[in-house]
Design goal:
By secondary structure, the protein is α/β, with parallel strands linked by helices. It is built from twelve helices and seven strands. Strand 1, helix 1 and strand 2 form a beta-alpha-beta unit. The two termini are 31 Å apart. Its EC number is 4.3.3.7.
Length: 310
């Protein structure tokens, strides 16, 4: 158990894709290798995020995978596990485990099964989790992804939570897809010390000068080094070229379903067909989409050899 509150996470974090064997069991060894490669290339580990197929993983699987990473020597302080579920009890269990392990923070979805929830109800949910975990080391990042959760996290809710729990509410990942919303979060809360993470590296050159903390981006799974360089060098003469490059690659991935697309690219680069496996109800890319993805990434200058981390 770690006693001290970890240092805040900044820069680029990857919602780490979860590899499965052909029988749909988690491939823990490959998960460790991919996480280690991400760290080596400058990305933090937002394990069990949306693009991790987290909602297809059980509580036991998430805890076991976290323990596997720790046993392999990967630093907990570089991890921001997703812990939000529709079950209050499961959310508390996952959050408590992450805090005790020394995670740099937790990324918490709202209770996404329940739609049209009032801010009062959401406040009660988050407050109950915080009170039950009851640990001053908890750094909680709210996860706003209304297109999938159906439950938007408003600026008023953030303000209420920050007022009640100023030492616990650490930031927000905004996957609203609405730059005006992301900018409002940065403008209102960054000066109060909240770390605001857009969900796409395409926004970095715009968001970082305003005070954004970095980004938590799906495509950091396959392009971490260049995104990390942009986070580090956004004031430099290289910034425009870096931004153009990462945006171009991001747009290719956005043209197809993101999770199977990233797994397709990793499988192609590593020559490991098991990487293609997704848990139902997700489906692998169709053959024509797979071929088009590889061709378009090649034309965009994507370096597949950089993914050969074996």
């Amino acid at each position: 158990m770690i006693d001290a509150r970890p240092t805040r996470l900044r820069g680029v974090l990857a919602p780490v894709v979860t590899p499965f064997h052909a029988n749909l069991d988690v491939n823990a060894g490959e998960f460790v290798r991919h996480c280690a490669w991400l760290l080596e290339n400058g990305a933090g580990l937002a394990i069990f995020g949306t693009n991790s197929e987290a909602n297809s993983l059980s509580v036991a699987e998430r805890i076991r995978l976290t323990e596997t990473l720790l046993e392999a020597g990967l630093p907990a302080s570089s991890m921001m596990p997703g812990t939000g579920t529709s079950s209050l009890v499961d959310t508390v269990s996952l959050t408590r485990h992450a805090v005790h392990a020394g995670a740099g923070g937790v990324l918490m979805l709202p209770p996404f099964f329940y739609k049209k929830i009032s801010d009062d109800a959401l406040f009660a949910y988050y407050a109950e989790v915080i009170e039950r975990v009851a640990d001053e080391r908890l750094s909680l990042y709210l996860y706003n992804i209304p297109a999938l959760s159906g439950v938007p996290i408003s600026l008023d809710l953030i303000e209420r939570l920050l007022t009640r729990y100023p030492d616990t509410i650490a930031g927000v990942k905004d996957s609203s897809g609405d730059w005006a919303n992301t900018k409002a979060m940065i403008d209102v809360f960054a000066r109060d010390g909240l770390d605001i993470f857009p969900a796409s590296e395409a926004l970095l050159s715009t968001a970082l000068p305003l005070g954004a903390a970095g980004c938590i981006s799906a495509t950091a799974n396959v392009n971490p080094r260049n995104i990390a360089l942009l986070c580090e060098r956004w004031r430099s003469e290289e910034a425009t070229a870096l931004q153009d490059s990462v945006t171009r690659i991001r747009k290719v991935f956005e043209s197809v379903p993101m999770i199977p697309a990233m797994k397709q690219v990793i499988a192609h680069a590593t020559d490991d067909g098991e990487w293609l496996t997704v848990r139902p109800p997700l489906e692998q890319l169709k053959q024509d989409n797979s071929a088009r993805l590889i061709d378009e990434l090649t034309m965009a200058g994507f370096k597949f050899e950089n993914l050969r981390y074996r």
